[in-house]
Structure formats: structure tokens, C-alpha cells
Records
---
Amino acid sequence: MSVRETVGEAAAAADALRALGTSGRAALLRGIAQGLDDARASLISAAVDETHLPVARLDGEVTRTANQARLFAEILEDGDYLGRIQDGEALRRVLVPLGVVAVFGASNFPFAFGVPGGDTVSALAAGCPVVVKAHPGHPRTSALAFEVLRQAVVAAGLPAGAIGMVSGFDDGARLVTDPGVAAVGFTGSTAGGRALYDLAVSRPAPIPFFGELGSVNPVVISPEAARRRPEELARTLTESIVASTGQLCTKPNLLLVPDGAGELVAHLRERFAASDPTELLNEGIADRFDSALSAWQHRVGARSLVESGRTPDGVRSAALVQLGAEDDVAGFEEAFGPATALLTYGDLKQAAGRIARMPGQLTVSVFAEEDELPGLGSLLAAAERVAGRVVFDQVPTGVAVTRSMTHGGPYPATTAASSTSVGGTAIARWLRPVTYQNVPLSLLPPELRTPEPALGVGAH
Amino acid sequence: MSVRETVGEAAAAADALRALGTSGRAALLRGIAQGLDDARASLISAAVDETHLPVARLDGEVTRTANQARLFAEILEDGDYLGRIQDGEALRRVLVPLGVVAVFGASNFPFAFGVPGGDTVSALAAGCPVVVKAHPGHPRTSALAFEVLRQAVVAAGLPAGAIGMVSGFDDGARLVTDPGVAAVGFTGSTAGGRALYDLAVSRPAPIPFFGELGSVNPVVISPEAARRRPEELARTLTESIVASTGQLCTKPNLLLVPDGAGELVAHLRERFAASDPTELLNEGIADRFDSALSAWQHRVGARSLVESGRTPDGVRSAALVQLGAEDDVAGFEEAFGPATALLTYGDLKQAAGRIARMPGQLTVSVFAEEDELPGLGSLLAAAERVAGRVVFDQVPTGVAVTRSMTHGGPYPATTAASSTSVGGTAIARWLRPVTYQNVPLSLLPPELRTPEPALGVGAH
């Protein structure tokens, strides 16, 4: 089936998906969650083969992905996501589905950010049919997850086309430019994301493109934290950096450490040198990791503290690079894999300045001691200015799927700083407001045909 | 001062504007409202000269603009706009200002959509410094309104640069591409808006562009409404079409009338022929009106029912064009001025199909009788699919500045269907979410340092 036909079938299912209503779509999402649980063994087996991620990690990811679908079911039942506002009798506002959503999943989370991931379930929750682009890194896993989605869609009484799938580079581009597609969700590289973003905004009728691209995720270690907790911080940070072989969008790529933190650096060197070599997702990822790491090593004044052990088949051990003290980190980009860079700073004011001048980030983290809090104001303000999540005394890896989560940030962290791709408000990406004026109750959409006290009432 | 310097001064005022807090910014907005009231006479006098709009209309517009600023003051005091969500103790989400906002106002509302209009006051409310691009159609009015804003900004204790102004075509383009600008608000033509949108999304770091471009605002008159109320509807519709010499973004450009509505059409012809010639805003608008009207008249099967009386100095009387019955309205665009087109339909199903195939609209309106309601379901569904506002038995002109208003819609009505440029939620355009994780109370922004019960609490 061509992209045009797949999108056409999806568009044809839009009315049925809307007509299911919030409770019907909540049931659909719970059906997807159950389907993922039921297919767990075969999903994990395919993903182990295709991604080299360990079973325990993939098992946890299936659980996370099923729970994510259940979170949106609860959000539908609450109804707050509908953004209903009423003025007097005549004006009633509600959020309605945008239309067919195209989803491009990531290589590193075949489930949570893949075919059955957050973009797909939040779009279905919103009432939008979905066409996923299967990731070339895990085609069998994608096909199995797609089967789960399709069975849940059919079991909900919807046309099968409410969820569609295409694959291949060219069909991905066709999907973004298809006139029947109303919005795009994307998780992946900055280069790939920007290319598809450019297609989306150059259409005769441009569409929103919610892309999560790249993030350095700087971590600032305060002078006192470095002095008092060198061993503990070295362990915590190394674990965060090498988890999932460093292939996490929130992995710290840059540690800002105070001058004279020799003990912390020594412990980091030791931990990095002792880390187990593990296999990256695929050869493309390994090649790009090697290039990015090489770019770090070739920055003016940079030197390797721990070299990455490499084998041709994509196995890598962790690398630690010390940047030159004068490095302004302009053009510094993430290395997607087990590596981080160290940059020293003189005082917290200088550290705040460095953070403030960075491009958009998913996260900025600060480790500090309680007696230092009064001096951290400008650093936290700088962190807020560039990031979607500001973390204190914890590592940024591990993104909780909760209502208040923001997994986003200014460009290039994402192409839409006002959005999040994880958490309850991720549904807002697929909705737009409509105000009904003077429309009789019987002609209002069901979401507005509720007793008035259920609606927010504006003062004007 | 160069655009770069103006934006630089605005950016330098961001921290002070944020530090004012919600109550301080509410006071700033009330200061702007008071300033508009105080300068009313000189503002109106300049605008009458520059726009040819009548005094009564401009006087009402100043009131509307001042009240708009006061609405955002109330919204700040409520605090709901902050989108605060909390999960347990550790995760707290809040919306923060995007940064410097560039505002391009419209020719037809020198106040409400001009220098002191909705884009400017909603951005200041959000905590974003603003640089306005003065409209070439009313430079003196823009300068006077800018003075009001600047005085209010200084009176609020802010650096004067928190509000800046540039003018001229080239500086407008420089403003959109300046790296210090974080978002753009625009109201104007489809061609001009798309050109600036293209600049915004092609930047090395793209920024959101909230443009309100063009809308046909179709109005469907049901068979029974046409039969029972021909005279009343002809009067109501004509008034809506010729108000402000047809220069309203929500002016009906297309009336869908049932076959055999001869009486309604006869009354419309009579009303249109009797309408007073009035002067358009400027010669550019008059030229574009003539071109658009000519495009209507040259569509296959079209014929003029009432010709527009024209004088070279921009005075026009109302024009009524009958489209061919087979016209699919593909490529049909608004004529910004006193004119509308008639298109006949066979039955309501056909009318619904025509609406569903239209591009994005600010409004779709339906006039019908109560006994017809059961047959209007698909028509209303089609209206929702293409429009930001669905109006029943009222004309679309006259956009209430209320909390529930949507003045937006899918492209080309706007470049961002998820937003509105009028009403309380217009502030959301200038905000992005940040989640604070495990951050001590003393380091949270003031908006989050509230007693916990004030925050929304997520279930997860």
C-alpha cells in the first residue's frame, strides 16, 4: 500500500476515533497496554536481537510503555486535557483532534519511543489516527508492536486503518509531505530531525513538527560537592553516563567541575576505565559515536583521560575527555554513546555564564551542598533559560512518565519548545482549540454537552 | 538604533520583567490600559487621519484594547495560566517566558491588533519583552501608541528597552531572523505572513511563528432560514459584510445559499446596491481588493450581481458576485473589502461536503431554523474540522475578547492551529514548560514557591 493510501485510510478513520469519545479511547489505550503485556515475550525477544539492549532493560521498557498508555487513559477520563472554558451561555471552547499524526520513533527505545510509544498513544488519546514510520534499526520489533496496536484498534471497533505503518527513507519523506498528515512527532538525531522539519514547514500548508533532536545535558558539580562527595558523585555520574551504553537522550555529555577537583576527576577516570565494554545499537550509531567523540578530542586544548576501547563490531567502553580550560563549548554536540567531557570552571558565576550561553537542552543538572544554596540563584536561572527540566542533586537520566514531566526544551533539544514528548501534557501537541458560539446544545460535540458546572467559567 | 541593538535591549530587560512577578506585570498591564485611556483623543485623531476609519469605530477600538490589557491582568492574578502541575514532592512543572517576542500588527485595527494590541499585551503578560514592527499604514498612530507602552514600562520600574519598536520592510525581516528573538506574532496578509513564516522556520535555530493570515469565513444559510427570514438575513449579512468597509479578518467572503433562495438573493442585491461607498484603509489595500474581486469575477461561471462602485482614491461600494453552481471553490481567496460571493447548494449534505473540503478558516457560520437542527450534524462536524470558531445563527464579525475565545484555525487561517491571537489563552503562545526535579524550595522560581495546595496535583 502506498503512503498516500495508508494516510487516506487513517484519515477515513478520524471520525470513528472521535466518535469513540474519551471513555472509548481510554478503553482502546488500556487494550494497547494489555496487548503489550500479552506480547511481552515475543516483543523482547525481537528487540534483543535487533538492538543488543539487555533483556532486563527491555522488559522494564515494555512495562513503562504499557503504563504510559494507561496514564493517557486516566487523563482522558479526567477530561481536564480538553481545555474547556465557557463564557456565559454563548461561548464554549474545547480542544479537538488535529488530524492524522505521523510518528517517527527512536532507535534507542524500540517501545517507549517506538511504534507503541508516547507519540502514538498520546495521539490516539487525542483522537488522532496515527501512521508510524518503522525504524530501520528494529524492523521486526516494529512489526510486532504494530500488530499489537492494530489488534487493539480493531477490538475497539475502529477501522484497522486508524493505525498505519510505512517504512523506508523515501516513504518517511512522503509521509511528512502528504497533504493528509496534520502533524509529526519525531525522536532522533538533529540532522535527521531538521531535514524532516524542513519538509514539514515547506509544505504548501505547513504542519507542526514536534521533534526531539539532540541535547548535551550539562551537569554542574559545585565546589563543595566535588570536595565532600568525590567518590559518590563519580559513581553516580558514571552509572548515568554508561547506562544503556550511553544511548539515552538525557545522558550527561558535559560535566562542569570546579578547578582543583582532582579527587573527583581521579575517581571518574577510575570508574570509566573499569566500565564494561558493551555493544551499541547498530553500526550507524557506532560510527556516529566515534565521529562525535573524535570531534571532542580535536577541540583546542582537549585531551583524552580515558580512551574508548573499540572493536569493529560496535562494542565500546566508556570514554572521558578533558576539554581545554578556555573552551567556550561553541558547537559542542552530544556523542550518543558511553562518553562524557569534563570542563573546569573558576567560580559558580562563571559556571552560570557557561550554561546561559549554551543552546537549548532537555536537561540541566546541578549537584551542590545545602550550605551553597544561597549562591546558586543565577545558576538555576541560567538552567531554566536553556532547559526543559532542571534537576538538583540527581542525574538527568530516567525520565518519569508523570503528569508534570517535561521532556523538551528550546532548539535544538526540540523543534517546539512549548511541548513535551513525555508526560501527561504530551497530548496537547495533537489538539487545537475550537470555540462554539451560540450553538444549540444538541449540535455541540459530546465533550461540551456536559452539565455547565463541569466547565471552567471565565470571568468575561 | 539597529534592530540588533533594539533586540539586545529587549533581551536585557527579560530578567527584570520576569522578576516583576505576576502581580507586578498585572500592574504594568493596567498602566498600559490607563495610558491608552488617557491618550485616547490623540490616538484617535492620528488614526482617523491615517486609516480613514470612523471616530466611533476607533473610539470603541481603544476601549477594547484597554480592556484587553485588563483581561490579561486578571489572568495573571488568577495564576491558572502558569500550568502548574506537581507530582509528589519532587516534580513541579510551570510555564516560563519564551524570550523576546516580535510583533507585526495589522493595518485594519491600529490599536487592537496594532502596537498596543493583543500580541503585545499577552507577551508582556507572559513575561516576554516585545519588539513591535510599526505598520507602514499608520506610522504616527504606532509611534503614539508606542509612547504609551514605553511610559507604562518605565513607570513599572523596568528598563525602557522591555518594549522596542522598529520600522520598514528590511528591518522587519531582520527582526524575524535576529538570534535574540524567540517568537513572532503576526496579523496580516497570507503572502506577507508566509514570507515571514518562511524566514522564521529557516533560521539556524527556528522559532515559533504565530501568524493570522487569511480566511474566507463561509456562511451557510439553511433552506428554511432562507425561506422564512430572507429580509432579516439579507440585512444582518450585509451589515456584517460592509462593516469597517469589509476590512475585517472575520468578514464573510462566501455565502452558501440553497437553490431557489431567490427572495434572499434579491434582498441581498438590494442591500448591497444601497450600501454607502466608503474609503478603504489605503491604496495598497484598495489595489489588492480590486485584484481579489476581479479573480472572483473571472472564475468559471461567475457573474456580478452588484458591481463595486470605484473611485481612484480608494472609495469603494459593496460588490456581490454569484459563483457558478459547479464551482468547487478551489483556490478561492478572501477579498479584503466590501464584497462577498454567493454559491448555491442542492441540499445540506452537499453544503457540508463543500465546507469539509475548504482550507483552514477562522470561522464557519450556519444560519438555520430550530426544526432543522436534527439534520445539521454533518455540517457542524465539517465546520469544526476546518475552523477555529463555529458560529450558529450569528454573523462571525465581532470577536469577543473573552477567556474562551478562539481567533485561529488551520492553515492558512493561521500558521499555528493550536493557538489563538484573541482571548485569554492567547498568552499560551509565549510560554514553554519547565519541570523542576528535586529542587529545594528556596531555589524554585517564585511561581512555584507557593503552598502546595495551590498547585494541581497529578495522580502519578
Note: Residues 217 and 392 of chain B are 13 Å apart (CA to CA).
---
Amino acid sequence: MKLDPIIILNEKELRENVHLDHSLIDEIEKGFIALSNKEATVPPIMMLPVPKKDGEVDIKSAFVHTMESMAVKIASGFFKNPDIGLPSQSGQMLVISTETGMLQAVLLDNGYLTQIRTAAAGAIAAKFMAKKEVSAVGVFGCGVQSRYQMEALSLVRRFDKIVMFSIDTPERKKAFVDEMKERLNVEVVIAESGEQLVSECDIVVTTTPSRKAYFSPKWLHRGLHITSMGSDAEDKQELYADVFENVDVIACDLISQSTRLGELRAPKEAGYLKDLSCVREIGDIISGRKKGRETDDQITVCDLTGVGVQDTMVAMMAYLIAKDKHIGIEIPR
Amino acid sequence: MKLDPIIILNEKELRENVHLDHSLIDEIEKGFIALSNKEATVPPIMMLPVPKKDGEVDIKSAFVHTMESMAVKIASGFFKNPDIGLPSQSGQMLVISTETGMLQAVLLDNGYLTQIRTAAAGAIAAKFMAKKEVSAVGVFGCGVQSRYQMEALSLVRRFDKIVMFSIDTPERKKAFVDEMKERLNVEVVIAESGEQLVSECDIVVTTTPSRKAYFSPKWLHRGLHITSMGSDAEDKQELYADVFENVDVIACDLISQSTRLGELRAPKEAGYLKDLSCVREIGDIISGRKKGRETDDQITVCDLTGVGVQDTMVAMMAYLIAKDKHIGIEIPR
């Protein structure tokens, strides 16, 4: 068998050619379905702490049984890097053939592919769980992922206003407002409080790295959908545990992970989730095996912690685009 | 800080520039010392089985605390590949900076660097544990690693004869003899039996993938050193468990791994290693904290299962050679 050359793609090429769009959402949906159908092998994350530099290298992978390639993602967070003028986050993905085990591509994305696959998951949560008709949407946090979440949401719901709340600097909040106005051509306002934000919105996305719950059950109102993106570690939390006592539908990407690292950890520990069978995985909702929202006045919540199948799906998509468009550097074997 | 470009090296460039030599042995020794000094972080291996192709992708890494880079090795074994004219084994290593977390190099070695770092470990075992003066050396197995082991041994001991025993085909045995004669300029003979081989040799290296013990305690004789390379999985074994009841010095690369996946598993289970404190790690012997061989008539054995620090050391060496010699393809960031 003649093997294709190995393709090396840099961040610029990936940003120019792989986009947060409907085809990415379709691929990520397939990944979630495989995960919930137990048609994916997802080993535990390999973590290499580097204390001398306040750093960590994390390695994630997932084999989606029906896919011809799998991704191995090596992501670094080195929090002393800004002192020497470098970004804290970096990383890349390898694309490995599941037919031969051989390397097909190196994607030098510096986290870009993770950003868009994460945003695509947020779009999927809203697509299957939010009301069809919404006017305003809200977001907690004003960082890069907050922006991608709003862009992703615009692919699945029509809205004419974004309400944002953040404890970040005025400059960063203004940058969010300006960028969102331009990119999505909607009204963008900064809320006075979290409570005010939620009261005005039918969809709320939480994308903060908070280590202390701030989203109160008192803020819940009929018809609300919450997508919770922030918590991906045992010490992170955005929603108070008793929020989950007061909602109608609870979903997440992977129950075993969300109850360990995500928003479902605190309510499980507090005894609000005694019966985990009421929690639905997003893959089961996409495939129709379980229901998402059933009526407009339900309150729904979806916790997304991020799973390796998303990496495999976005990496495979990038590889196929690169092959098709003949971009990147080809390395002979 | 200005970052160096990412370097991509292919197998040919690596074979031409990174060799099994004294400087590699020195680096691997440093890695073993760090391991035994607890100055290395070695997470569990990530394994991704791909049953549809009788395949598996394994990911290994190790952070040696004093080193400026670490390796992440992705190794594939796909045992249906020969049906389509491809090798079963493939793989590559990434070199990641432990200063910034950023990618420095991609080493497309297809297992070559693993072969030479494994051989270097065999040389180290003999260097610290075999008698100084030997005449003949023996090897069980006639594959690629058997050849590298003999080459490695020639760097640390003078010998004029190799005795080999194998159950492989006559053609492959002849190929071993011809190649070893030419490469090392010594006499090379095929033994009639394992017993005969051991009786003639002061150093014996076992490099078979055997799943059934074949090395009998009856074969042991005064002054013998055995380096056991083959066993690296729970179902592999070369030496009978009671060999360990009859030797004077027992060493290995990593006690926790050797007693789980290596030759020390069977004797531990059989009760011959009740006191693990008698087992010495090779890093402790290299650093002088523990003794190797003390007299010429002792019988010594060293089990090597392969550890991630060896990958980190050989990968870092390859990276520094490539930077120094300006080889490989440079990828702008």
C-alpha cells in the first residue's frame, strides 16, 4: 500500500481553512453519538506537571471506532510564559490512522482546534435543548471561548441581543462588546449583575474559570436553557449545587466525567443527583434515544467538560480539508 | 523570548546522525540515575487498542526534572499491516520544552530511537554488572534488537565470539551470523541448545518475545551475567522463576514495573522475591548508591523493561544534534 505523505499544518493554515461552521457541528455531533453508543475508546488523560514553571503537559486521545483516524492531543499550560513574552497555552494534535497506526498529520494549532470544537459543543447543547424562539442570549465571561460560544450559538439560534457579565477589566469587557457587535451584527450590552443578565435571556452560557459557584437557583425562570462550559477540574464550579434541584432536564457530555470534574460534581456530592439515570448524555439526545427539551416552559441545563472524541472529530476534519485543498507542508516518509 | 523553529526529522536523518555510541550510553545513564533518585515523573502508559486491525497505539512520556525537554512517544503496532505490505511497527516522538511547554521537534523515527535506547540500556547493565574480562557472549533471539544488543555490548566489553540461539528460520539465523560478523568482526556461531550457549558465555542477553520460560536455573554457572530484555508485558517470561533463587545480585530498571510486566513478576508471584529490598535499580548502581557485581564469581541478572526516561534522553540528544548540525526541516511557528 502506498502511503500519503505526512502533512504538517501551522496555526495560520488551520485558522484559514478549518472553521466553526455547520459541518464542524455535524462532525462533533457524530462524535458525541459514538461516545454515548460506547463506540469510542477514551483512555484517562495523561498529565505531566512541571512545577518549576507552573506548567503542565496534558495528553488526550480518543479512538472513535467508525473513524479512519484518531487524534492525540498534547496541550501545554505554562503559567510563567507571559513573564518571557510567550502565551501560557500551546499545543498540537497528531492525526494517526486507525487502519495502519501510522502518522498522517501534525496539526500545530496552538489550541485553536480545541477552541472551535468546544464552541461547536456549546452550539449542539443549545440546538437540542434551548427554546426554538429566543430574543436575547447571555454569557458569563468575556474571554476567547465566550466569543466563540456566541458565534457558535448564532449558527443554531437567531437572536438580536447579547447580554454579557464579567468581573474582568473594563478594557477587556469593551473589547468583547466591540468584537461581538462587528462579528455578529447584534446589540451587545454589559449587564449590571448576573441576576439581571439571566432575567433578560432565554439562553445563558457560562464560560468562566470560576472556583466558586456564582449562579443562584433564584435566577432560574421558565424557559431558560443554561450551557455550562467553565468547569473542567475538581476545584471549579459555576452553578450552585441546588440549581440542579430546580431544573427539568439535566444533560452533559459524559456522565462519568461531568460528575467528577464538571458541574455535576457538586450536586452529586450534595445529594441532589441521587438518581443519575435522570441525567442524559448529549449523544443520546442527538441520536434521539433520549429527549432534550420537550416544552417551551421547561428549564434545561447542559454541562460540557470536553471529551477526546471532539478532538478526534475536529482533527480528522482538518486533515481531510488539508488533503483536499493541498495545503500544509508534505513530509516524505 | 524568540523561539527556535520546530524541527522535523525523518527516519533516514535520525539513522544517519543519532547513533548507538558512548555519548548515548552516557545520556541513558543520566536518565536511569534521575529515575532512581525520584527526579523523574513517569505517568502510566496510555494504551489505545484498535481490535479491528489487531492494532494498538501506546503513548509514553517522562519528565526528567533536570532536562530542558521531554519526549512524548506515540508507538503503533498494527499486526495486519504486513497483509498490505506495511511494517507492523511505526511511531514517532515529540520533543516538548520543559521551560515553555512548546513543541521543539517531531522525530519521525519509526521505532529506531527506541531500538538504540533499549540497546544502550543493555550495554549499561553489562558495564556495571558483568565481569570485566569475558571471552564469549551469548544472545537468545536473532532479531533487530538482538543485533543492537551485541553492538551495544561491544562498546563496554571486549569479546571475540558471539554464540546465538534462536527458534527462528535458518535464513534469519544465517542473516544474523553474517551481519554480526561483518559489523563487529568477531566469530559468530549458532548454539545447538540454550544450555550449550550459556555454558560457553560469561554474558548472556535474552531478547525473545517468549511467553513461556525457557532459561533453566540448571544452566547458571559462576561468573555469569544475564541481561533480560524480552519481557515487557504480563504474559511474557524468559527466565524460570527459580533462576532468581540461585543468583547473587538482582537488578532491574524500575522495580515497580519489572515486578508487574518484567522478569521479576514470576519470581515475585512464586515467593522467591519476598524481600524486594534486595533488588537494586540500575540507576542506584550507576550512581554508586548500591553495588553491582562485587566479585568475579558472582551470578548477576538485570531485567530491563524499558522506561520513558530512556525516550526522553534519546529524543533530547537527537534534538540537540539536529540543532547543532542544522539538519531536518524547519517549520516556522
Note: Chain A has ten helices and 16 strands.
